[in-house]
Specification:
The chain is mainly α. It has helices at 3-20, 26-40, 57-71, 77-91, 96-118, 124-136.
């Protein structure tokens, strides 16, 4: 597989992931379907992904583990930074936008838990849970 074929396969895989992601808007999913059809010449459901673009299956799993590290709230920022660097080196990109999206997501989650604490009609057990989660997310003093 040439590097162009590998790149195209990666693009298709990324758009397939968008189709499977429940957090992606219908408009974005429609766009991803169009991209997949234009690149592969067939519908997304008919296109078969090649797993790791010819990459060793073990390395595909290693990269997946590093990606999981990025979303684990119990993982230190140092470990997350290491995983971001590893993924960028293996995938050949900087993933700065992905890092920014993770930061935005973290801030929104923290904001949600803080909002729970601010509401008067929230139960004591819900507030305690919010405090525990904020502590796990590294937000002390709540």
């Amino acid at each position: 597989m040439s590097s162009d074929d590998s790149h195209t396969a990666n693009i298709i895989r990324g758009h397939k992931a968008a189709l499977a992601n429940p957090h992606v808007s219908d408009e974005a999913k429609a766009h991803s379907e169009q991209i997949i059809e234009s690149l592969s010449g067939s519908s997304p459901k008919a296109t078969k992904s090649s797993g790791g673009g010819g990459m060793d299956p073990h390395m595909v799993r290693v990269i997946a583990g590093h990606k999981a590290t990025l979303t684990n709230p119990k993982t230190s920022e140092e470990s997350k930074a290491h995983s971001r660097k590893f993924i960028a080196e293996m995938e050949g990109s900087t993933n700065e936008d992905e890092s920014r999206q993770a930061e935005i997501h973290h801030n929104r989650v923290v904001g949600g838990f803080k909002a729970v604490l601010a509401r008067e009609d929230t139960s004591d057990s819900a507030k305690e849970h919010a405090r525990e989660m904020l502590k796990e997310l590294g937000e002390e003093g709540y």
